[in-house]
Amino acid sequence: MDSNKKPERDSGRQGKSYSIYKRMIVLIVCFFCIPFLISGVYWYNQASRMIETKAVEHGRQLVDFMNGHLASYFEQLEVTTSSVLSSQLLKTYLSKQTYDEYDQYDFTQRASNDIFLHLLSNRADIFNVSIVGNNGLVASSFSYKSALEAYNRYSKSNEIGAKFSIKGIRWIDGTPVLTIVRNLINNASYRSEGMLIVDIKYGIIADLIQRMSLGQSGQLWVYDDEGEIIYSADPDTWGKPMEENFPSIPLISGRDSRIDQSADGKTLTVYNRLDVADWEVANRVSVDELVGNLNNLSTMTVLIGALLVLLALAVMCTILFVLTRSIRSLQFLMKKAESGDLEVRAPVHHPTLEIANLYRSFNSMVDEINRLVRVVHLAKLKEKEMELRQMESRLMLMQSQINPHFLYNTLEVVNSYAIEAGVDQVSRMIVAISKMFRYNLHDLKSKVSLAEELEHLETYLSIQRERFPGLVVETQFDGQTVDKVPAVRLVLQPIVENCFKHGFENRESNTMWIRIEGHAEENRYQLKVIDRGAGIDPQTAEWLNARFAADDKGLPENSLRHGEEPHIGMWNVHSRIRLAFGPSYGLRVACPDGAGTEIELTLPLEETDDEHPDRRR
């Protein structure tokens, strides 16, 4: 149950998984669409503000230019009218306290000839010139009525001592004029004795003011400090109050700007001042007109950006479809491999290099897993085979023992009869056989010293000497060394048995010679069993040595039947030595130049736990 719940805990820790499609769409939206939209809005706002700022600066530049132009214009007009102030005619008539009709007539005629004619001939923009004295004398080049109206209107509001003053707009017989007045000052008393009224054709000034308009559809208003309209697009409103005709336009003095929102859209109103005439200028223009094609450009940019994003999404989705299809195909193959089908293979060729490399890696991985599975399978088969061989060897050994306990007890009874009968030779052989059975009762896997194994071999040879009186056995050992050499039980007896069975069995001579010698070599102990028997042919010796050298191979199957075939005893000895001490030890067959056979047996000199950690106890 715990193993079944573990994947659930793992999936909970991992959290929710998302497909690569969703991740890429979120990536494009977060890192492309939203930044593009934000940057577009920011760019549009900044561009709009910059254009509005430029429009305000442009309006002020126009006003400054108009200021200079009007200042030059009025200065010239002031210079032109300055000659009237020093006229002797004005000094003579305006200083009179009383006058008659003739004086009025004479003043009018002489003013027309001396003053009006001069001004009107030099300035084509002058519509009317009038002189009105404080004593009641009036002279006008066009209308006495308009002269008196202007005098009555401006005499009280005209500044004391002002020499040149620009007034508002008037209409004379349907013609709009800009009225300019000058005080006629007595040089002796420095008192104003009258007023020079100059009415300029306003069309010329209106054309100049109109040039200050911003844009094609811009609206322009010019008004004075009293709120009277100096200029607007509707000439019928000239000279009338701003609040009555244009209540939506705030009367602001000085330089300012404001943006208003209406049903028609946003409008920018720029306020400036014409200092030369003390006029206020209100210039209104649509923000959409200022921005111009910026809206279209921004819309086009957004559309192009959206199109590019859609195109990028389409391309990305196509690429992702190819990639994910390949990944899903690989995932399907991996599931088949996971279920045990190790014969699946991914396509070798793919248009995408990374996917092709991934496929090749998958194929290599499956090949390696398949190889490792075969290796493990073969290893297990060989292990089972080795176990079967060991079991067969034990079985044959047990069969050869023929119930050693029973034989041992039987031999004890026979020995007692031999002693009673006085047959010492039989008694010795029975005792030797008893020792051999007692030695054989122990586990063949248990380790003994080489000295114990040699003692057991001597017991065996004592029996063989009774059988073969001509047997000669020579031994040469280091008595102190053999006690330190580890061995397993019954490794020498089978080898010496082979000497009798294969070396001396068919020989006519009764002389048998066997030599057993041993010496230490570095960390191993080398034993040799040498006989002068029939010997072994080189091919058989080479075949045996090849089997001994291969630790994972045994004798052919037919060599294990019934224990009758040759060399089974030596193979058992070799296998048990290798199982006990490792592949560096075991048997080897040598063919000396003379007759006979030489068996080399290699054992460890002093076995330690570090040499064979897999066999520690």
TrEMBL record:
The chain crosses the membrane at residues 20-44, 302-324. InterPro entries: Bact_2-comp_sensor_kinase, dCache_1, HAMP_dom, HATPase_C_sf, HATPase_dom, Sig_transdc_His_kin_internal. Its main location: membrane. The keyword Mitochondrion does not apply. SMART domains: HAMP, HATPase_c. The keyword Metal-binding does not apply. It holds the Pfam family HAMP. GO terms for cellular component: plasma membrane. It is found in: Cell membrane. One of its GO terms (molecular function) is phosphorelay sensor kinase activity. It is a multi-pass membrane protein. Keywords: Cell membrane, Kinase, Membrane, Phosphoprotein, Transferase, Transmembrane, Transmembrane helix. SUPFAM superfamilies: ATPase domain of HSP90 chaperone/DNA topoisomerase II/histidine kinase, HAMP domain-like. Residues 321-374 form the HAMP domain. This is HAMP domain-containing protein. It comes from Paenibacillus hemerocallicola.
